[in-house]
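Could you show me just one protein sequence together with its fold in token form as a worked example?
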Amino acid sequence: MTARIQYLDQVIAQPDFWNNPTPAYETLQEIEYSIFYKHQQYQRWCSILEDIKAALELLELSADEQLWQEVQSNVTQLQQELETAEIRQLLSDPEDKKGAFLTITAEVDNADSQYWAYMLLQMYCRWGKSHNYPLDVVEIYESNEAGIKYATLEITASCAYGYLKSETGTHQLQQISPFDATKSLRTSLASVEVLPILDESVEWEIREKHLEITWHRHRGSVNRAETWVRMFHIPTGISVFCNQQRSLMQNKEKALAILKSKLFAIALAQGVQIDKIQPRQIKPLSNKLIREYILHPDTKVKDLRTNVETLAATEVLDGKINLFIKAYLQQLNHATSVDKEALDNFK
């Protein structure tokens, strides 16, 4: 780590370092991570280990149920943080360090699919909270029956996109329908799309003439439901709706941020500049089935790309998805160019 920091220090010292803002910003981000984050992380692990050692010494002298539970809690926390650090080492793309917009959409207009979309939203919220990541639902369209038609979750933590890009695709649930009096077995589908949150390293603006913005706000009211904004990108036909911020301006800013991320992802997929996007060649990022969740007659969750599976379906729906994230990133990193193309077809 020290050698890498020394090298980055030499890069900054070059007279032309600031000539290109994008790589300069990325270099500064890497320095911040290497110096501050890793050091802070190491100190934290040492502190947890010291707490565990001190508690075990006390337990040798006298049994204490509460202290033993604290030891188990610290061990679990340390294991989770070490696992997250191991996964982080698998991130290699420049966009991986960014935060993420995660959008969930019910694939069918019925109660089962919409409730499945809601279950997925809960799963990702629980995953984020277990890692202490800042979460914010920035757009949501609730169903009239149950669940949601779609929702977008903003995760502003570093590397959220790198972790969650494995989740882009269609997720399938098989369970006894809670909305069917005959208790029949139903299959429900919901799509997940994960996009990087753009930061200062990406310098571009959408032309005003390419935007059509509609909104509604009742005078004298600050009700959230009355400050929604819909933003339509005319050249591509992409639309974004935001309604969860307190003010009209906040919803407008958030809608613009999501739209930029969508256009950025499409441009990357097409291998062109953003202003060169071909609307007719836009392909959904989440139209491939990637994972099955079976809750009846048996319980199992299986990733169809890596073949990793677990019988602990309840734990997965409770946010424990790191085994799928890790397996996907490992396969992505070790794949041949042909394998990478096959993986990309799932996106």
